[in-house]
Amino acid sequence: MAVSGGEADGRQGQAHAGKLRLGSTDVHRPLILGALAWLFFALPAAAYDYPVTDPFQATVVGVPVPQLKAQLPKVKFRTGYLEKTVEREIPDALWYNWRIPYMFAMQRKSAPLVFVIAGTGAAHNSANNLFLMRALYAAGMHVVGLDSPTLSRFVTAAGSTGVPGYLTIDAEDLYRVMQGVRDDLSRRNRERITDYGLTGYSLGGSHAAFVAKLDKERGDFNFSKVLLINPPLSLYTSVSRLDRMIESIPGGIDNFPRFFNKLVGQVSAAYQASDTVAFDETLFFKAFQANPPGPDELAGLIGAAFRISASSLIATSDIVTRFGFAIPANAQLNRSTSLTPFSQVTVRTGFTDYYHEMYFPFYQAKEPSLSRASLAERQSLISIQGFLQKADYIGVQHNRDDIILSPGQIDFFTEVFGDRAIIYPHGGHLGNLSYRENISDFQAFFTEGWK
Amino acid sequence: MSMFIDYKRLSMLCALAVMLVLTGCSTKLKTDGEPEEPIFVRERMIDPSVQPLTAVSDPWEGLNRRLYNFNSRADRWVLLPAVRGYRFIFPQFMRTGIRNVFNTFGDVVTFANQLLQFKPKQAGQTTVRVAANLTFGLLGTIDAASAMKLAKYQEDFGQTLGHWGVGTGPYVVLPLYGPSNLRDAVGLIPDTLLQNYLWDQLLSDDDGYSAERNAARVILQTLDARDRVGFRYHSTSSPFEYELVRLLAATKRQLDVEK
Description:
The structure holds two protein chains of two kinds.
Chain A: H1 2-46, H2 55-61, E1 78-83, E2 99-105, E3 111-117, H3 127-138, E4 142-146, H4 152-157, H5 167-188, E5 193-201, H6 203-218, E6 225-229, H7 235-245, H8 256-273, H9 281-290, H10 295-321, E7 331-332, H11 340-366, H12 372-378, H13 385-390, E8 394-399, H14 410-417, E9 421-424, H15 436-447
Helix pairs in contact in A: 2-10, 5-6, 7-10, 7-11, 8-9, 10-11
Chain B: H1 7-23, E1 30-31, H2 42-45, H3 61-89, H4 92-116, H5 120-135, H6 144-147, H7 157-163, E2 171-174, E3 178-181, H8 182-203, H9 211-228, H10 241-258
Antiparallel strand pairs in B: 2-3
C-alpha cells in the first residue's frame, strides 16, 4: 500500500508538476511562441554573419572565404583619360602624372550613372573601387571609378592647391574631374545618362558627402542617390588614430624595418612550405592563417600600410608646392634624382606632422585668422550636419567597431542619418565591404527610387 | 616584370649600360644656390644605426632610374600595344597553349639548375613534369602536369649562384626586362643560351637553322612574357614607386633563392 500509495503520490506529483508546467505554458504560450517566431524569422535577419569579429583582423584580412563574398559577374571596364585640370606645369620629378585616368563601364541602354570615389591614397582601379563598380554595373547602372584626391596623380594633375585633405577644396577638384568625365562619356557614348549617383569608401565617403553638398549649390549633377561607406566622422581624429597605430609595433617606429622583415620572414616561411611559386596576396593570407599576428602587430601592420601611402602623398605635396617639408624648397629635381632619402623621412613623419607642419601653415598663409582647431573642424561631417540631416537621398553604411572612429563617434551616424544609416555590428574598417550582405544592401540602396 | 631577352641583345645592352655608368648619371640633389634646409632633415630624424627599410644596394641609381623611365615608355608605346594586338589575334586557348610551350622550355632550364644545385629529388619531379607535358600534354601545349597535381618549380642560374652563396651585387634595371641585380643579370646568359640551343634543335630542319622562325619565336616569347605580368609602370603614381619596386623585387629574389 505504502508503495502503491507512494507510486500514486509520485504520479500525482508528476501530474501536479506536469499541470503546473502546462499551466505556466498556458500563461506564457504567446510569449514563447513569439520568442520562437522571433528565433526563426527575426533572428536570421538580424544576425550578421560576417565571420571576422576582431576589428583589426577584419581590416587586414577582409572577407576570408571567397564564397562569402558577393558573387558578381565579370565586367569589362574601359579606361578613359582627362587632361590635367590644373594650370600648374607638371613637375619633372612627377612627369608621369600628367593626365587623370578613370575607369568606366556603360550599360547598353539608358541608365543612371554612379561615380565611385576611392579611399585615402587609392586609385580609381583599387580593389575596393572595382568591387563596388561591379556591384553597381550588375544592378543596371553606368559606373565610373575615380582616383582619390589624396592620390599622388590627382594631387599633381587635378589638385588645385597641391595640399589635399581640405574637404571643400577636394570636392571642387573632384567636381571639375567629374564634369570632365561626364563630357567625355557623353561625347563618346550613345547611351543616355538618365540620372546621377555618387558613392565612396573611407575618405572617399567624406568626399562624396562634400561633393553632394557642393552639387546642391551648383546643380550640375543633381545627385539622386549618395551613399557613404565607412567614412571618418572627423578626418583629423581618424588620421591621428591611424598614425598612432604604428606605435603598436613592439619597440616603436625605429623597429619598423625589423618588424617588416619579420612579416616578410613569415611570408617567406609560408612560401617555402607551399608547393606553388605564386607571390601574391593569397600567400600573405596563408602566412597569416598559419601564424596569426597578435593584436599589436596587426595594428602595427595597418599603421605601416597607412604610413607608406601617407609618405607618397606628403612627398607629392612637397614637390608640387615647393614647401620645404622634407625636400629643400630650392631643389632642382629631375627625372633621375634619387628620392630615396626623402622616402625615409616621409615614412617617419606621418600625417600628424604633415597636418601641423605643412597643411596648417599652408592654409593659414591664405587665411591668417585660421586656427588649428577650426581647420580640423572643417574636415568633419559635423560641419555639414545640417545638410546631411535634410538630404534624404544620402545614406551611410558603417561598422560599429570601425577602427578609424573614436568610441561614441558611430552615434553621429545613427542620429543624423536615422533610418538612412545601416550600421553593421562588426567588420572593422572596410573588412566587410565585399561581404555578400553588405553588397546586397549597397545594391538595394542604388536600385530603388531614381527620379 | 620579367621579359625575355635575346642574349646577343643583352650583351650589347650590358656594354651600353657600362658605358653609361662610366659617363656618369648623378643622382645628387642639385639646388638653386645654397640648399635651403627643409623642416624635417633625415640626419636629425633617423638614428644612423637604424637600418632603413629601403636599403637595397643601388650605386647605379641614376642610370637605373633612367632605364626605369625608358622601360615605362617602351612599355607604353611598343610592348603594351603589341600585347593588345597579340591578345586580339590569338584567342585565349591559343595563348594558353603558347604559354604552356614556353613553360615547358622553362621547366628544362629549371631542371638544369636543380641539377646544378644538387636537388636530385626536385630535378626528378621536374623531369616527370616535362615528360607528362610532352606526352599527355600534346608536346607541351597543355599543362597536363598541373592537372595531375605534379609539383612545379622555378629555378634559374641567378638562383643557382645564390644557392652557392654568391651575393646579389648591386640592383640593376635591365632595358625592357626590368628590375634585377648584377648576379641575376649574369645568370640570364646561360639560361638564355640553353633555351636558344633547345629552340635551335626544334626549329632547324633539313635546310638548317631558320633565322625567320627563330625571330618569330623570340617575338612570341616576348609578347607572352609581357602578357603574364599585370604590372603597369607608374600605376601607383607615387614618387616612391621606384623605391617600392626595388624593395619588392629584391625581397622576392631573396625568397626565391631561399626556397
